From TrEMBL:
<dbReference type="Pfam" id="PF11102">
    <property type="entry name" value="YjbF"/>
</dbReference>
<protein>
    <recommendedName>
        <fullName>Group 4 capsule polysaccharide lipoprotein gfcB, YjbF</fullName>
    </recommendedName>
</protein>
<dbReference type="InterPro" id="IPR023373">
    <property type="entry name" value="YmcC_sf"/>
</dbReference>
<feature type="signal peptide">
    <location>
        <begin position="1"/>
        <end position="20"/>
    </location>
</feature>
<dbReference type="InterPro" id="IPR021308">
    <property type="entry name" value="GfcB"/>
</dbReference>
<keyword id="KW-0732">Signal</keyword>
């Protein structure tokens, strides 16, 4: 992004440090020159901690999705559904959008998935059909920092994935393992457990953003 030239005096003031006197003088000079003054940026709240603390108060009558991210756990309720696409909201502003069992967008986390676009069908639509064979899938993912600063946004990150399924020691349960090659991310691994009789994914562990642990999801019956 092209920036307007800034007088050398302002650069020197900015270099003085982040103490109140230097920053206050810089704001005064910028105001005197008719330039926009810098805004104070408040730190992002730990929305997942709020969600964990207030999850006991969610509507018990609504379908619920259990979430886990690192040491935090929370309950999100269904707020919107269109076909296989569902949107879940937890207290504190944490929102997770799913397409079937796959997370396709998030809000309220340190890293956000802002969009997911599939290149062809998703093999997770029929996880049991992956028994005895593998399948390839490709999708494009857009990311952003929590503050949605344009400098933190990345668009069209390609996930080139291979999925395989196998029966587990637990009777009637199929485990689908997904391994993806992602530029700048290295290898990404996702796991999905499905009921063999119905093909429904009951719980999953999946990548939800750069620098975050895999998110654990337990889907409602």
């Amino acid at each position: 992004m092209r920036r307007a030239a800034i007088p050398c005096l302002l650069l020197l003031l900015a270099a003085c440090g982040s103490d109140g006197g230097a920053s206050g003088m810089a704001r005064a000079v910028m105001g005197g020159l008719g330039l926009p003054q810098p805004r104070e940026t408040a730190p992002e709240p730990d929305r997942l901690a709020i969600a964990e603390a207030e999850s006991a108060e969610v509507d018990a009558a609504a379908p619920q999705l259990r979430l886990g991210l690192g040491p935090r756990t929370a309950t999100a309720v269904l707020i919107q559904q269109q076909g296989n696409r569902r949107m879940w909201r937890a207290p504190g502003g944490v929102v997770v959008a799913t397409d079937g069992p796959r997370v396709v967008a998030t809000s309220g986390l340190p890293t956000l998935i802002t969009a997911t676009r599939f290149d062809g069908p998703d093999p997770l639509d029929n996880p049991v059909e992956l028994l005895g064979r593998s399948a390839e899938a490709r999708r494009l993912v857009d990311l952003s920092g929590a503050g949605r600063n344009p400098a933190s946004m990345r668009f069209g990150i390609a996930f080139d994935c291979r999925l395989r399924a196998a029966r587990t020691e637990e009777e009637g349960v199929v485990l689908v393992e997904e391994r993806c090659r992602v530029p700048g991310q290295g290898a990404v691994a996702n796991s999905f457990w499905a009921d063999e009789a119905s093909g429904r994914v009951t719980h999953a562990e999946q990548w939800v953003g750069t620098g975050l642990p895999r998110m654990v999801l337990v889907f409602p019956n």
